[in-house]
Amino acid sequence: MKIAIIGCGNMGMAFARAFLKFDLVKNQDFLLVEKSADRMDSLTSFQPGVITGIIGPQIGEYDLIILSVKPQDFLSVAGALKEVIKPSQVVLSIMAGVTIEGIQNALDHKAVIRAMPNTPAMLGMGITAYSASPEVDIHQLRKIENLINATGRSVFLEEEEQLNAVTALSGSGPAYFFYVVKAMIEAGKQMGFEENVAALLVKQTMLGSYHLINTADKSLDDLIKAVASKGGTTEAALRQFEAGELDKTLEKGIFAAQVRSAELSRG
């Protein structure tokens, strides 16, 4: 498969590196389109394939076009892309908040997949949910799924509207974890630890806890109970969290992200 990536920021390059790492695409079968001169210089050192600053007729030679520009920049590239795209090509969008219908209308092109990855994709540990227009056939969809899985794991959604919830839950999700980690490190500093020691204690705790979630044959409630002995220190902390309705606050934040994603999708 020959792939063109339009917009070579962090997420676009995460996909490019993953495809090359697993030998899913040859260097010579990559076309990277990047308007930033500074970023083009860094792409040259990476040597991923053909690099250009413009959307030209060569785009038509590629099987898959990945749209990785900022949503607000999409319409500025859609005009040029519309002139060169071919009906046989598939468009994979990883732009937040731009619907399949919006892409179809802007490009006058039917075969569109919309995906929502998250930043751990840069390490090959992401989760990407995606939805497709009816014009994408099952063979094309399986090929795209294999490519996406190079960045971690994937989930296909029949209903595109569910991508708003995905954006709120896993797309924005890493920031929620970072927020909690930051608060825990700050608490450690206030208890007298140097920042590097507090960070080590918290980050290793989160890493180990993740593996327990993934491997222990227990529910989350059981895992909590295994740490929180009656009348102990963990119970004291959990009571404070419950008094402040921390769980409800987190839920409200996630729901607010879902609402905002829906608003952006409607334009």
From TrEMBL:
Which reactions appear under catalytic activity for this entry?
Answer: L-proline + NAD(+) = (S)-1-pyrroline-5-carboxylate + NADH + 2 H(+); L-proline + NADP(+) = (S)-1-pyrroline-5-carboxylate + NADPH + 2 H(+)
Q: Which UniProt keywords apply?
A: Amino-acid biosynthesis, Cytoplasm, NADP, Oxidoreductase, Proline biosynthesis
Pathway in which the depicted protein is active: Amino-acid biosynthesis; L-proline biosynthesis; L-proline from L-glutamate 5-semialdehyde: step 1/1
The Pyrroline-5-carboxylate reductase dimerisation domain sits at 160-264
Q: What class of enzyme is it?
A: oxidoreductase
InterPro entries, A to Z: 6-PGluconate_DH-like_C_sf, NAD(P)-bd_dom_sf, P5C_Rdtase_cat_N, P5CR-like_CS, P5CR_dimer, Pyrroline-COOH_reductase
Predominant localisation class: cytoplasm
The similarity annotation says:
Belongs to the pyrroline-5-carboxylate reductase family.
Enumerate the NCBIfam families for this protein.
proC (TIGR00112)
Record protein name field = Pyrroline-5-carboxylate reductase
Gene encoding the protein: proC
